[in-house]
Amino acid sequence: MEEMFCFQCEQAAGGTGCTKIGVCGKQPDVAALQDLIVFGLKGVAFWAHKAREKGAIDRDIDVHMIEALFTTVTNVDFDPASCAKVAQKTVQMRDKARALFEKANGGPFKGDVPAAAGDWKLPAGQAEMVALGRKHGVKAFHSDPDVNSVQNILLYGCKGMAAYADHAHILGKDDPKIYGFIHKALASMLDAKLGLMDFVGLCMECGKTNIDCMGLLNKAHIEKYQAPTPTPVSIGAKAGKAILVSGHDLKMLEELLKQTEGKGVNVYTHVEMLPAHGYPGLKKYKHLVGNFGSAWQNQHKEFADFPGAIIFNTNCIQRPGDQYKDRLFTWGRVQWPGVKHIDGWDFSEVIAAAQKAEGFKEMPAKNILTGCGHDAVLGLADKVIAAVKSGAIKRFFVIGGCDGAKPGRNYYTQFAEKLPKDTVILTLACGKYRFNKLDLGDIGGIPRLLDVGQCNDAYSAVQIALALAGAFNCGVNDLPLSIVLSWYEQKAVVVLLSLLSLDIKNMKLGPTLPAFVTPNVLNFLVENFNIGPIGSVEEDMKQMLGA
Ligand code: SF4
Ligand code: SF3
C-alpha cells in the first residue's frame, strides 16, 4: 500500500505522484496531515460560504483559510507538529463557521451536510490524525478521474492564490471577494450535483479572481514601498556580517532591515526576494546590499557557503544541511522540524546568529537588473512602441515561472541565449535564475532582459501586455508576444489559470506537464487554448518567430 500520495508539484515522483516520501522531502505523516487540513478546510468552506450568502462573514475564518491553504503549498511546512496545530485550528474554524451560519440563518441548516462539514472530531494523538488524513487524500476527491483532475487544479489554484492573499493581508490589504471565492470553490468540491464543466468554470473564475488578488498585492507593495524602478543589484558581497532572506514577503524584509540598521549587518536577497531591490521604500536601506546565490534548488550547496544567518519567509525550503542548520530560521507559514521558527516580528535571534557567524570578505562582482514592473516599462512606452514600429524589436517573449531541479529546465537558459537580438524578454518568478546573469544587451536603450518581479508580478506583465495591445489596437493574442512558462508549484498553477482566464492562447508549458491533469483535461486545454508542452528550443523558437 502507498504510504502517501501527492502529485501537486512538478517534481511528483515518476511524473505520477510521490508515494513513499516526497521528492521535496515531505514525509508521509506531513502529507496525511496536510490532506486532513484540506478535508477540514472544505468543511470550513461549506459553512463559511453559506454564511456569506446570508451576509455573515468572519475575519478569523477568512484569514485561517488562506493561512492553512498556504501551509499546504509545496516546500512550505514540513513540520508534523505545526501541521497538526493547523488541523486543530481548522476544526475550530469549522465549528465557528457553522455557528456563524446558524446565527445568520436563525436556525440549523435543513439540507444534507457533507461529511467534511459534519461534526467529525479530530483525534487527540498525532498518529491517529495521520491515520484519519490518509483516508482523505487527493485521489478520493471524486470517482470520475477527469472531475478529480479539475477539482485538484481548482484546489491548487486556490492554494497559490491563498499565498498571494496572505502576503497582501500581512500588508493590511484584504478583499472579501477573494475570501468569498475561495470558500465557494472549496465548498463546491463537496457538491455532488456539480460536473466537469462546472469545475472548469470555477477554475476560470479562480484565474480571474487571482488577477484581482495579484493586483491587490501589487497595490499593497506600491502603496507601501512605491513603484519599483529599474535597479542594478550586485551579485557580489560586501565585507561584513550578513543575513540572507529567501521567500516572497517584502514586509518581513522591511522589518528585518529596520532592526538591522546601524548594527553592522548587511542584508542579501535570495531567489524571489531579488525584486525587493527595485522598490524605493526598500532600497533606501543602504545595508540591503545584494543578491546571493541562484535558484532555490541549489540552496543546499550555496547556503553552506553563506557566512551568516539565513531566513525563509515563504517557499521554497529544502532539507537543511548540517553546515548551516544552526544559522537557519523560518518565519510565517514556513516550518522545518528542528529549525528555529521566528513567531512574530522580533528578529533579534537572527541578527545575533549573523553576528556570531564569520561574515563576508569583500567580493566585488557584476550587477544584474531588476525592478522593471509595469510602471517602469510603460514609462518607456513611447520608446518601446517606436522600436516595434521600426522593426528594431521584432517580438517580446515572456519567459517566466518557477525553477526546479530537473535537467530539462536547461531549455529556458538555451531559449534565452538563442533568441535573436531583436527580441525582448520579460521575465518573472524564480525561473529567471536560469538566464538572469547572461549579458543580453539592449535595443536602443531598452534592456533586452526586463525583470518584472516575483511570480505574483505576473499581474504587472499582464498590465504591460494589455497596454501594448491597447497601443497597437489589437488583442493580446495578436501582439508580437510569445509566452513560455516553467512551472513547479501551485502559485504557477494559479498564474496559469489567470492567463487562461484572459483567453491567452498558444502558451508553451514545461518542463513537464502536471501529473494531476488527465489526458481528457489536457485535450480540453489544447483545443480551447492551444497550450502545448515545450519541445526542442530550435523548433519552438522557429514556430514562435514565425520563421
Ligand atoms: Fe511530491 Fe511535489 Fe507532493 Fe512534494 S509537493 S510530495 S515533491 S508531488
Ligand atoms: Fe519559485 Fe519556489 Fe515558484 Fe514565486 S520560489 S516562483 S518555485
Secondary structure topology:
Blueprint: H1 28-53, H2 59-71, H3 80-105, H4 126-134, H5 145-170, H6 176-188, H7 196-225, E1 231-234, E2 241-246, H8 250-260, E3 265-270, H9 280-283, E4 288-291, H10 299-304, E5 309-312, E6 328-331, E7 340-342, H11 348-356, E8 367-370, H12 374-379, H13 381-390, E9 395-401, H14 410-418, E10 423-428, E11 442-443, E12 446-447, E13 449-453, H15 458-471, E14 481-486, H16 490-501, E15 508-510, H17 519-529, E16 532-533, H18 537-545
Parallel strand pairs: 2-3, 2-5, 3-4, 5-6, 6-7, 9-10, 9-14, 10-13, 14-15, 15-16
Antiparallel strand pairs: 1-8, 11-12
Helix pairs in contact: 1-2, 1-3, 1-4, 1-6, 2-3, 2-5, 2-6, 5-6, 5-7, 5-16, 6-7, 7-16
Bound molecules: iron/sulfur cluster (SF4) and FE4-S3 cluster.
FE4-S3 cluster binds next to α16.
Written description of the protein model:
InterPro entries: HCP/CODH (IPR004137), Hydroxylam_reduct (IPR010048), Prismane-like_a/b-sand (IPR016099), Prismane-like_sf (IPR011254), Prismane_a-bundle (IPR016100). This is Hydroxylamine reductase. Keywords: 4Fe-4S, Cytoplasm, Iron, Iron-sulfur, Metal-binding, Oxidoreductase. The modification Cysteine persulfide is found at residue 402. Belongs to the HCP family. The protein is an alpha/beta fold. It folds into three domains: 13-223, Up-down Bundle (Substrate Binding Domain Of Dnak, Chain:A, Domain 2), CATH 1.20.1270.20; 231-356, 3-Layer(aba) Sandwich (Rossmann fold); 374-545, Rossmann fold (3-Layer(aba) Sandwich), CATH 3.40.50.2030. 45% of the residues lie in helices and 12% in strands. It has 18 helices and 16 strands. It has helices at 28-53, 59-71, 80-105, 126-134, 145-170, 176-188, 196-225, 250-260, 280-283, 299-304, 348-356, 374-379, 381-390, 410-418, 458-471, 490-501, 519-529, 537-545, and strands spanning 231-234, 241-246, 265-270, 288-291, 309-312, 328-331, 340-342, 367-370, 395-401, 423-428, 442-443, 446-447, 449-453, 481-486, 508-510, 532-533. The strands form four sheets. A six-stranded parallel sheet has the order 4-3-2-5-6-7. Strand 9, helix 14 and strand 10 (423-428) form a beta-alpha-beta unit. The longest helix is centred in the middle third of the chain and has 30 residues, at 196-225. It is globular. It starts with 27 loop residues before the first helix and ends with a helix. The mean pLDDT is 97.
